[in-house]
Amino acid sequence: MPQQTEWRFCKKCTAMFWDGEQDKGRCAGGDTHAAAGYNFSLPYDEAGTATVQTGWRFCGKCTAMFWDGEQDKGRCAGGDAHAAAGYNFSLPHDVPGQARTQDSWRFCGKCRTLFYDGYAEKGRCPTGGGHASAGYNFVLPRLAYNGDPVPYGDDFVAVPVDE
Predict the structure, then answer these.
(1) Three-state SS sequence of the chain
(2) pTM of the complete model
(3) Band of pLDDT at residue 78, cut at 50, 70 and 90
């Protein structure tokens, strides 16, 4: 199963953003995104199932993960609507957590980004105020801090990344 690492939590806006290039994208919390926490390894170009939702994309303006499955592309911190680029991500949801996963990732019904809903503070939404959780509870595979592989499904092992 193909996957891409370097997906991170932004400690300013609480959105999932791609941290794999020098350009960290525009953040609703001001300036650019600031990575914190785990390094996520997200699957892409896989078929959707009852517990895997496709249609999640990288925004070429703000570098956040956003839902691209409807005509409304949401509000981007980089201005106007999100601009889809790159892979079509296939995100697991509403499944039991494993040793190397994190749940409480949610869709924001206002801006369409994927954000961490595990804190009382809901970050900064480009539409104003905090994010508004809706839809599924995404349970995302992450890499271990010590570089151990991440299990995902019965036969998937992510490429280790040292932090």
Answers:
(1) CCEEEEEEEECCCCEEEECCCCCCCECCCCCECCEEEEEEEEEECCCCECCEEEEEEEECCCCEEEECCCCCCCECCCCCECCEEEEEEEEEECCCCCCCEEEEEEEECCCCEEEECCCCCCCCCCCCCCCCEEEEEEEEEEECCCCCCCEECCCEECCCCCC
(2) 0.87
(3) very high
